[in-house]
C-alpha cells in the first residue's frame, strides 16, 4: 500500500465515541422533564422565556464566531445548553429583554471573551444571572403564582406574548394572581428581617407545602420548581457517567449538614434541611450548575472540596446574606478557586504513595 | 503472608474498549509459508542496537547469529531460516517517525536447515541458573508482549533482591489480539515447561498466570495444564484495560505498587509474557533462538483474519497478502494492538520480535476526527491507571511549557492511551505526551552540554588559580628560607610575612592559631600550613561550584 494513503496518527487507534455534543445533548435531555413541567406549571410565558433565551444564546454564539471569523461551534450544543440553563434561573414572566440581555451576557462575557468553551472561568449561565440580579433586581425577583398552562387562571398565548414583549397583558385583561414570594424569599423577609419564627412565617400568609415544593408547584424561577424531576435528571447523568457523584454529594452535604445542625439547635429560626433541599435552586445548582465541566475541578478531591464549598456558601448566604437565594453566588465564588483546587488536589501518582510505617 | 493478595485488587481507572476478539479467537495458529525475502532489523528491542556479524554473500544456517548485543540492554538477532545474506542496508521499519534502520536481508534457500551446533538440554532443571540466563541471552529473547525488553536482564535480578513471585502476563488486554490466548490453548504444555525453567533460574517458589475472564477456553486449558503443579496457579482477572500493563497487573495480583522509577523486582516480582515463557522453553530445551512469533492479523480491513506463526523479518506486505490483502476501505494499518500499537506509514516493514498483531482498520473503525479544546471534563483523570492528570500534562506539552512537565509526573505515564480513548474532545493526549517527553529529553541534553562547557571553563579557571597560588607559595618559601638564614630572634618579621598568604586564602583562623603555637622558627610547619590553607580554599571553591550546578 502506498505510504501516503494510510493514516499515520498516534495511538490509541480506537475511541470510546464520546464527544462534546453528546455530553451537552445528554445534559439537555436530562433537563427536559423539569423544563416541560415548568411550562405546564407556569404556562405560555414560561415557554416563551425558555425559547427566547435559548435562541438568543445560540444566535449570539453564531454571530460572535462569525465576527471573529472562527468556525461555528453551534454544533457543540454548548450555547443551547447555556441558554436553557440561564432560562431556568429566570422568573417565569421575565420580559424579553431580560432574556436577551442575559443570553448575550452569558455567551459574550461569560464564555467567548475567555476564548470560548473550555477556557471560561465562571459558569456562563450563573455569571449572567448574577449580572441580571444585580442590574435588574425588580424584574429578577418578581415571582408570579404558578397558574398552569391550561387551568382557569392560565394565560392565553396572546396574553403571554403581550406580557413578555410589552410588560402588560392585552388591553382589558387583568392578571389574577400577580405575584407572590418564593419560600426562600418569604423566609428571608419574615424570619431574618422581621424576626418571626419559621412556623409563623410559613404557616401564615403563605402556606408552605413540601409536596408542592418537591413536585414543583410553588413560586420561583423556572428551574427552581421541581426538585424531584431535576434530581432524577441528575441521577441519570451520573448513571451515564457525564458527571460524577463527587460534586452533587459534597454540595448537598455542604448545605444540608449545617442546615440540620442549626435546625436541631433552634428550629424556630432555622428551617429544616428538607426545606433547604426542595426550595430555591439548590437541586438545579447541585446537578447542573456546579457540575459544569469546564468550571469545576477535574480531580476527585478537588471536586469534593469544590462541592462542599458551594453547599456551605449557599447555606451561609441563604441564612445570613443579603439575598434570599445563594446558590448562584456560591457557585460563582467557588468557580474562582478551581485553578487552585486543581493544582493542589492532584491524586497520588502510582508508585509514589508514602510507605506505611 | 505471601506476596500475593488474598483477593484481587483493582487498579485505579481503566477503560472498557470493545474487545473485537471474536474476529480471530477461533483461528488456530497457522504457520505462514516461507516468504521470498526476509528483512531482519538489527534493532528490535529496547536498548542499544545489535552489531552485524555477517556480510553480504554469506551463507547462513537457520539460527545463525546475525547481530550480537551492542550493549548491556540489547539482544542478539539470528537468521530465521537458512539462506544467503543478500544485502545489509537501511530499510524502513515500524517506527513512530517512519525511520529506517540497518537490516540484514536474507534470501531463503528453501531448505530451512538448522545450524547443527544448536542443541537443547534434556533436563533443564539440572542447569545452573547462570547458565540458563546465558542461554536466554544467547537466544536473543526479548519480552514478546510488545515492550521488547531483553529477557535475560529480567532473569538476572540483583543479588540483594529476592524474587518472591514470577507473574506470567497472559492478560492480553489489548482489544483484537488473540495470539496469547491461542498460544495457551494450543501449547499449554510448553508454557508450563517454560515456567518451570524460569522458576528454577530465578530460584523462585511461586508463579501466577494472570488471564482475563474473556478467555474462558485458555483459562480452562491452562488450569488443566497446571493441575499437578503445586507452585503454579492460574488466576482469572476481571476484564479491564490496561490490566496487562506490568504495573497494573502487579497491583491487581499483589495489592502493591511498583515504586515510581523503580522496577517490579524492587517489590520482589518478575513479570514475563506468556509467549516469552514458550520462547525461553524453546531456547533451553531445543536450543532454538527466537526466530518466529505468533501474530494476530485482524481488523475488519483484513480479508481473512488469522493467527499466524511468522518468521521475524517477514514483511507486513507479505503477511497481508497471505491473509487475502486489505479491503479497499482500509484507512489504517497498525502494528500491535489498537490501544498502544503503532500506525504504519507504509506496509513494507518487517515483522519484529515485538509484533503481537497487525491490525487493519476500516474508515468507520478508526474515525479520523478533529481535535477540540479540552472541556475539563475530567474523564481522563478518572481513566488514568497511574492517577495522573492527563489534561494538564497535555496542556503543558502542547504549549511547550517544558519545565512544568516533571512537576505533573509526565515521566510516570505508561502511554496506555486510556485517557485519549475516553476524551470527548478527541485530544491526541498520548501524542502530546510523547512530544513532551522528547522535548524534555532534548532540553536535558542541551543542559548537559551547557553544563559540560561550564565545567570545562571552570576547571580551567581553577587550574589557573592553582598555578597562581603555587607561584605565591614558592615565593613564600623562598622568603621563609631567607628569613631562616637570618638570625634567630625574628619572630615579629615572620608574623607579617605570614599574613598575606592568610588573607589570600580567606581562612584566617587556622594559620593564625598555628602561628601562636609554633612560636616562630619551625619553617617546615609554616610551609605545610600555607599549603593546607590553599587546599582548604580550593575545596571551598569546589563545593560552591557544585552547589551552583545543582540549583
Ligand atoms: S478527557 Fe479530554 S476534554 Fe476531558 S479533561 Fe481530559 S483532556 Fe480535557
Ligand atoms: S496514557 Fe499516560 S496519562 Fe493517559 S491514561 Fe495512560 S498512563 Fe495515564
Describe, in plain words, how this protein is organized in 3D.
The complex is a heterodimer of chains A (357) and B (551). Helices cover 57% and strands 0% of the residues of chain A. With 357 residues, chain A is an all-alpha fold. Chain A folds into two domains: 162 residues, no CATH class; 140 residues, no CATH class. Chain A starts with 19 loop residues before the first helix and ends in a 13-residue tail after the last helix. Chain B folds into two domains: 315 residues, Rossmann fold, CATH 3.40.50.11540; 108 residues, no CATH class. Helix content of chain B is 37%, strand content 16%. Chain B has 15 helices and 17 strands. Chain B has a six-stranded mixed β-sheet. In chain B, strands 2-8-7-4 form a four-stranded antiparallel β-sheet, with no helix packed on it. The relative contact order of chain B is 0.11. The interface between A and B is large, with 44 and 72 residues. The site of one iron/sulfur cluster has 16 residues of chain B, from helix 11 and helix 12.
For the termini of chain A, the CA-CA separation is 59 Å
| CATH architectural category of the largest domain in chain B | 3-Layer(aba) Sandwich
Runs of chain A with pLDDT <50, length 5+? none
Q: What's the CATH C level of the largest domain in chain B?
A: Alpha Beta
Could you tell me the radius of gyration of chain A in angstroms?
Answer: 22 Å
Strand order of the largest sheet of chain B: 1-14-13-17-15-16
The proportion of strand residues of chain A reads under 5%
User: What is the total domain count of chain B?
Assistant: 2
* CATH structural fold name of the largest domain in chain B: Rossmann fold
Class computed from helices, strands and strand pairing of chain A:
mainly alpha
Amino acid at each position: 500500500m502506498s505510504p501516503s494513503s494510510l493514516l499515520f496518527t498516534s495511538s490509541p487507534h480506537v475511541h470510546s465515541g464520546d464527544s462534546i455534543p453528546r455530553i451537552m445533548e445528554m445534559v439537555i435531555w436530562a433537563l427536559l422533564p423539569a423544563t416541560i413541567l415548568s411550562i405546564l406549571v407556569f404556562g405560555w410565558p414560561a415557554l416563551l422565556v425558555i425559547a427566547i433565551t435559548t435562541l438568543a444564546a445560540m444566535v449570539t454564539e453564531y454571530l460572535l464566531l462569525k465576527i471573529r471569523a472562527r468556525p461555528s461551534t453551534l454544533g457543540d450544543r454548548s450555547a443551547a445548553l447555556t441558554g436553557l440553563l440561564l432560562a431556568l434561573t429566570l422568573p417565569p414572566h421575565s420580559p424579553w429583554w431580560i432574556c436577551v440581555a442575559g443570553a448575550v451576557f452569558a455567551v459574550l462575557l461569560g464564555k467567548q471573551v475567555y476564548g470560548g468553551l473550555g477556557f471560561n472561568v465562571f459558569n456562563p449561565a450563573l455569571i449572567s444571572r448574577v449580572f441580571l440580579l444585580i442590574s435588574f433586581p425588580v424584574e429578577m425577583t418578581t415571582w408570579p403564582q404558578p397558574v398552569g398552562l391550561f387551568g382557569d387562571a392560565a394565560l392565553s398565548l396572546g396574553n403571554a406574548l403581550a406580557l413578555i414583549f410589552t410588560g402588560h397583558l392585552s388591553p382589558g385583561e387583568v392578571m389574577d394572581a400577580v405575584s407572590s414570594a418564593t419560600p426562600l424569599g418569604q423566609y428571608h423577609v419574615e424570619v431574618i428581617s422581621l424576626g418571626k419564627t419559621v412556623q409563623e412565617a410559613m404557616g401564615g400568609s403563605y402556606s408552605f407545602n413540601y409536596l408542592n415544593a418537591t413536585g414543583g408547584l410553588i413560586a420561583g424561577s423556572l428551574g427552581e420548581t421541581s426538585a424531584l424531576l431535576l434530581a432524577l435528571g441528575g441521577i441519570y447523568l451520573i448513571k451515564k457517567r457525564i458527571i460524577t457523584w463527587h460534586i452533587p454529594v459534597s454540595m448537598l452535604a455542604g448545605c444540608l449538614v449545617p442546615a440540620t445542625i442549626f435546625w436541631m439547635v433552634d428550629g424556630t429560626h432555622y428551617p429544616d434541611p428538607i426545606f433547604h433541599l426542595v426550595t430555591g435552586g439548590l437541586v438545579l445548582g447541585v446537578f447542573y450548575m456546579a457540575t459544569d465541566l469546564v468550571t469545576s475541578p477535574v480531580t476527585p478531591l478537588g471536586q469534593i472540596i469544590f462541592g462542599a464549598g458551594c453547599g456551605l456558601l449557599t447555606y451561609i448566604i441563604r441564612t445570613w446574606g443579603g439575598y434570599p437565594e445563594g446558590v448562584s453566588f456560591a457557585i460563582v465564588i467557588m468557580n474562582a478557586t478551581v485553578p487552585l483546587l486543581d493544582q493542589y488536589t492532584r491524586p497520588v501518582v502510582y508508585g509514589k504513595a508514602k510507605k506505611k510505617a | 503472608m505471601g506476596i500475593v493478595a488474598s483477593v484481587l485488587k483493582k487498579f485505579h481507572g481503566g477503560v472498557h474498549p470493545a474487545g473485537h476478539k471474536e474476529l480471530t479467537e477461533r483461528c488456530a495458529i497457522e504457520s505462514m509459508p516461507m516468504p521470498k525475502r526476509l528483512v531482519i532489523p538489527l534493532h528490535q528491542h529496547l536498548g542499544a542496537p545489535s552489531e552485524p556479524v555477517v556480510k553480504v554473500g554469506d551463507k547462513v544456517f537457520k539460527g545463525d547469529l546475525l547481530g550480537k548485543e551492542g550493549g548491556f540492554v540489547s539482544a542478539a538477532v539470528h537468521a530465521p531460516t537458512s539462506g544467503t545474506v543478500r544485502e545489509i542496508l537501511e530499510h524502513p521499519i515500524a517506527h513512530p517517525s517512519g525511520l529506517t534502520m540497518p537490516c540484514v536481508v536474507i534470501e531463503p534457500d528453501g531448505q530451512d536447515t538448522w545450524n547443527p551446533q544448536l542443541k537443547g538440554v534434556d533436563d533443564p532443571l539440572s542447569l545452573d541458573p547462570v547458565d540458563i540466563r546465558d542461554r536466554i541471552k544467547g537466544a536473543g529473547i526479548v519480552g514478546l508482549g510488545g515492550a521488547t525488553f531483553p529477557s535475560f536482564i529480567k532473569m538476572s535480578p540483583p543479588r540483594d533482591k529476592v524474587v518472591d513471585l514470577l507473574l506470567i502476563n497472559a492478560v492480553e488486554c489489548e482489544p483484537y489480539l488473540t495470539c496469547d490466548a491461542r498460544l495457551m490453548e494450543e501449547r499449554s504444555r510448553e508454557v508450563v515447561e517454560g515456567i518451570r525453567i524460569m522458576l528454577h533460574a530465578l530460584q523462585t517458589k511461586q508463579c501466577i498466570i494472570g488471564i482475563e475472564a474473556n478467555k474462558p477456553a485458555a483459562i480452562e486449558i491452562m488450569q488443566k495444564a497446571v493441575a499437578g503443579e503445586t507452585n503454579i496457579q492460574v488466576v482469572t482477572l476481571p476484564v479491564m484495560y490496561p490490566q496487562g500493563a506490568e504495573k497494573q497487573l502487579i497491583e491487581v495480583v499483589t495489592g502493591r505498587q511498583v515504586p515510581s522509577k523503580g522496577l517490579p523486582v524492587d517489590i520482589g516480582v518478575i513479570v514475563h509474557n506468556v509467549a516469552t515463557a514458550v520462547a525461553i522453553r524453546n531456547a533451553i530445551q531445543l536450543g532454538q533462538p527466537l526466530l518466529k512469533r505468533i501474530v494476530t492479523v485482524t481488523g475488519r480491513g483484513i480479508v481473512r483474519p488469522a493467527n499466524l506463526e511468522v518468521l521475524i523479518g517477514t514483511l507486513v506486505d507479505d503477511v497481508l497478502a497471505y491473509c487475502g490483502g486489505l479491503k479497499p476501505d482500509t484507512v489504517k494499518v497498525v502494528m500491535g494492538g489498537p490501544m498502544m500499537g503503532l500506525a504504519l506509514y507504509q506496509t513494507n516493514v518487517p515483522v519484529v520480535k515485538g509484533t503481537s498483531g497487525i491490525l487493519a482498520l476500516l474508515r468507520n473503525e478508526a474515525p479520523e476526527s478533529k481535535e477540540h479544546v479540552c472541556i475539563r471534563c475530567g474523564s481522563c483523570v478518572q481513566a488514568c491507571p497511574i492517577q495522573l492528570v492527563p489534561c494538564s500534562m497535555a496542556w503543558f506539552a502542547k504549549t511547550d511549557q517544558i519545565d512544568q512537565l516533571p512537576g505533573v509526573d509526565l515521566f510516570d505515564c505508561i502511554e496506555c492511551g486510556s485517557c485519549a480513548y475516553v476524551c470527548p474532545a478527541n485530544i491526541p493526549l498520548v501524542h502530546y505526551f510523547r512530544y513532551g517527553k522528547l522535548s524534555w529529553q532534548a532540553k536535558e541534553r542541551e543542559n548537559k552540554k551547557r553544563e559540560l562547557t561550564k565545567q570545562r571553563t571552570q576547571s580551567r579557571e581553577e587550574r589557573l588559580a592553582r598555578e597562581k597560588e603555587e607561584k605565591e607559595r614558592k615565593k613564600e618559601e623562598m622568603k621563609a628560607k631567607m628569613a631562616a638564614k637570618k638570625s634567630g630572634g625574628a619572630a615579629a618579621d615572620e608574623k607579617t610575612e605570614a599574613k598575606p598568604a592568610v588573607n589570600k586564602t580567606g581562612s584566617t583562623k587556622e594559620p593564625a592559631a598555628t602561628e601562636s603555637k609554633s612560636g616562630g622558627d619551625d619553617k617546615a610547619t609554616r610551609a605545610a600550613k600555607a599549603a593546607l590553607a590553599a587546599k582548604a580554599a580550593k575545596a571551598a571553591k569546589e563545593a560552591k561550584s557544585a552547589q551552583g550546578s545543582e540549583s
